[in-house]
Structures are given as structure tokens and as C-alpha cells.
Amino acid sequence: MHIFYPLMAVLLWSINTVVSKLAASSIQPGEIGFLRWVVAGALLTPFLLRGVIGNWRHIRPQLPRIVVLGLLGMVIYQTLAYYAAGFTTATHMGIILCLSPLMVLAIAVTRLGQPLTMGGAVGSLVALVGVVLVVTNGDPGVLLQQGFNRGDLLMFVAALAYACYNILLKRWHMPQIPTFQLLYLQMLVAIVALLPLYALTSRTGIHLANAPLVAYAGTMASIVAPALWMLGVARLGPSRSIVFFNLTPLFTAIVAWLWLNEQLHAYHWIGGALTIAGVVLAERWKAPVRAARAPDSHCAQRP
User: Fold this and answer.
1) Of 15, 86, 236, 240, which is most buried, counting CB atoms within 10 Å of its CB?
2) 100: closest CA among 184, 166, 176?
């Protein structure tokens, strides 16, 4: 029963990827990027503002970190995804986002000194092949002629921002700030940071076609899905919960097929399977790349 929580969270986030694609034709990216957090913040304020004020002595020293987290996770990641939706498909977005756990691994190995595992090395290559297969529509030679699609590149940057967000969220553990207060504070950061973009760029306005999209993004994707995910992590633990994140490209592709009539080709299934397999390998195959060896009299030891 506990698997219901992360499973539903991933499904809601996958649906939101399709919502982002729908929003590309009915509302400006900077507009929905700002309004979703206004909706979420307005709904949570009556329940959380008093607690935030009461906990201010613990929150104030952490404000610089909270601002960075809000900019990475709520502003850069989410807003770039809305811009990417104007140039690529929801299926591509879901598969590229699945690279985020591998980006976390790459940063941990290169910047934080975490040992590289066989799963990390092999899985990264397998997942990269899968993503290249998808974004080139099954013809990797296109990269040499045209490069990456603009939307795919924006989604890569968004996934990288999300990877940095997750690393810092873990390293900057703030036990004296409840999870929902931390989420709420990041929303407030996003509202303030995105206000200039909202004010200075063109706006479509809210109408019958885009109001449900803003409502879904501001409630199901911004409040309900994070709440379900946190419940899942609390009951299953982070290592078991993160496995469900690997279902993002599959759920996104199915929803996009049913809702947007996006055609699924063989390279989508093969590339998506390779991406998921690569992530699973990185998470499960923990053997170190450089295994310790006993001294060999016939071989000189490397310094």
C-alpha cells in the first residue's frame, strides 16, 4: 500500500509534463511559471504562514540556502521546462528528465569525491545512448548535421538544475524547518523571482482554455504530488522511493499518447528503456570501478 504514494506522485508529475506541452499553445511560459506558484502559495498561506512566523528564528539563518533552492528547483527547473515545451514533445521531456538522477551521480563523483561505481559508469553510457536515440528520432547522425533541438537543450539544463537542487537539498539538511514550511518558503522565493519575468514579458491572460492548466500546475503538481512524495519517502525511505522516479518517461509517453496523440515509435520505446535501464544500473550496481587488489610481484604498483 505504501507504494501508492510515490507511484501517484510520479504519475501526477508526468501528467504535468503533458500539461506543460498543452500550455505552450495557450499561455506564455513566464506567465504560467509565475501563476502556478501564486496559486500554490495562496492555497498554503492560511495553513503555513503562522507556523513560518513562529519558526522565524530557525528560518532566518537558512534564508540564503532557501533562496538558492527556490531558484534552482522552482524557478530555473520549472520555468525552463515551460519554455522547452514550445520546441519539443512531452515524450522527449519525460525521457530527458530521467537523466537527472545520473546528473546527481556525476556531480557527486566529480565535485564531491564520491567513488565511481560500475553501475554509475555503465549506466551513464547506456542512458546517454537512450536519450540520444530519442532526441534524434532514431538517427544519431542528425547530431553531426543539426545539433540538438532547442527544446531538448533547454530540458537538459532544466534537468541539471533539478539535479543540483536535489544534491543541495540533501547536503543542506534543515531539521528545524518542517518539510512543508521549507516547500512553502521556496514557493515564495519563486513568486518574488518570477514577478519581473511575468511583468516584463507578453501575457495571454487567463481564459477557459488555460485556466485548468494553471489550476492543475498550481495544485496537483505543486502541492499534492510533493505531499505524496514526502509521504512515500517517510514510509519507504529515499532509496526505495527514487526507483519510482524512473517511471517518469514511461508515464509521460503513455499520457502524451492518450492525451496529445503523440506518436510513439520504436526509437521511443528502445531509447526510453535504455534510459531507465541506465538509471537502474547506476542505482543498483554498487561495485567500485577501482577494486582493491593485492600486491602483485610481477607488476609495479602505480603511485
Assistant:
1) 15
2) 166
